[in-house]
Write a structure and sequence with these properties.
The structure is a single chain. This protein is globular. The protein has one domain. The chain starts with a helix and ends with a strand. It is of the alpha+beta class and 119 residues long. The strands form three sheets. A four-stranded antiparallel sheet has the order 5-6-7-8, with helices on one face. The longest helix is centred in the first third of the chain and has 11 residues, at 31-41. It contains three helices and eight strands; from the N terminus they run H-E-E-E-H-E-H-E-E-E-E.
């Protein structure tokens, strides 16, 4: 995991979703469509980014993500709709623990049993 002073120099605002555009609510649109719209709104740079969209297999991405100082993620189904005030059943909150063996990471799904992935 990076040292805190290294993380400070890489600090950025990361945009996760767009829920309204020009006064129109977008929560009923599938997540994939909201991400497409979001991509057209944001000019990414060093201090402004859009969360990455990753497809299976994700093992190497999870390891790189952890090495960059992240410990949790929300995985959203491409067709999921936004549900105000709650975590959609189509979303999975993941916590990654430190590698326990070379090439392995522990994943904890909220409310579900622990799984392991390989790089």
């Amino acid at each position: 995991m990076p040292a805190p002073e290294d993380l400070e120099t890489r600090r950025a605002f990361v945009v996760v979703d767009v829920l309204e555009l020009d006064g129109q609510p977008l929560g009923d649109l599938p997540f994939a469509e909201r991400r497409r719209l979001l991509g057209g709104l944001i000019s990414e740079g060093v201090r402004l980014r859009v969360t990455p969209s990753v497809r299976m297999p994700v093992g190497s991405w999870f390891h790189a993500w952890r090495e960059n100082g992240f410990s949790q993620a929300v995985v959203k189904h491409a067709n999921s709709r936004y549900q105000p005030g709650t975590v959609s059943p189509d979303w999975i909150i993941i916590t990654i623990e430190q590698d326990r063996a070379p090439g392995m990471a522990g994943l904890f799904w909220k409310g579900r049993k622990k799984h392991e992935i390989k790089r």
